[in-house]
Write a structure and sequence with these properties.
Blueprint: H1 10-20, H2 24-31, H3 35-47, E1 54-58, H4 64-70, E2 75-80, H5 83-88, E3 96-98, E4 111-117, H6 126-135, E5 137-148, H7 154-176, H8 182-191, H9 196-205, E6 209-216, E7 221-227
Parallel strand pairs: 1-2, 1-4, 2-3, 4-5
Antiparallel strand pairs: 5-7, 6-7
């Protein structure tokens, strides 16, 4: 896989995630010092799910995030374009669908809520993916995007980008990941990603309203929330 500024060919990105699937969950937990569990819980809470509602978890990977969403009592489906990731999560008791974010295999207005965690920056066309998520969400339904962001405090931002992303993350990945080279792409994709305000503008431009965000980890991660107009 090339650097993050190159076109994100779906086949290349899917193949990369196939390669890291075996130890993906372990690597994420180590790289985030266990904060990934908290972020999944906060994503579920931000969606304000109720029992019986239908929820799409896009870029669900091994479906660990989908299982967290199911704790709400909502009916949840995991969708991902990496068959290797879905296979790695085969034991998790939620429905799973192979799906391309730009061509979702679901009817209009099919879901009460949709979410994507740490996957939007891997899509070739961010705005189109967000518009496709809006298409499959009922009017008045909710979107939550959990994604890497830009730290708000300058000294922390510099240290995070220069030390954590360029040095620490690759070093840890070499020890625990099944494909350490893929985490070079991870670092590049985070560095090239939109800051929080710009992502909010893209979400609004894709047809969502009432867009807001909450910074986590000092802005290194952000939860964006929006509603489909009724």
């Amino acid at each position: 896989m090339g650097r993050a500024e190159l076109d994100k060919d779906p086949h290349d990105v899917a193949a990369m995630f196939d390669d890291v699937a075996r130890r993906y969950d372990l690597t994420n937990t180590v790289l985030t010092a266990g904060q990934d569990r908290r972020w999944r819980r906060l994503t579920r809470e931000a969606l304000e799910l109720r029992p019986g509602q239908r929820v799409l978890d896009l870029a669900a990977g091994t479906a660990v995030s989908t299982v967290e969403l199911a704790k709400s009592g909502a009916w949840t489906v995991a969708a991902d374009f990496s068959l290797g990731m879905l296979k790695a999560g085969a034991q998790r008791p939620v429905p799973k669908v192979a799906a391309d974010a730009l061509h979702l295999p679901f009817a209009d207005d099919a879901f009460d809520a949709v979410t994507i965690s740490f996957g939007l920056r891997n899509v070739a066309d961010t705005a189109r993916a967000l518009a496709e998520l809006a298409r499959v969400t009922r009017p008045g339904g909710r979107l939550v995007v959990c994604e890497f962001g830009t730290p708000t405090w300058t000294p922390y931002r510099v240290a995070y980008q220069d030390v954590v992303l360029r040095r620490v993350l690759p070093a840890i990945a070499r020890r625990v990941s099944s494909n350490p080279e893929a985490y070079t792409y991870l670092s590049d994709s985070i560095l090239d990603w939109h800051p929080q305000r710009r992502l909010a503008e893209i979400i609004a431009g894709a047809g969502w309203s009432r867009v807001a965000w909450r910074d986590l980890a000092g802005g290194a991660v952000a939860l964006h929330r929006a509603t489909k107009p009724a």
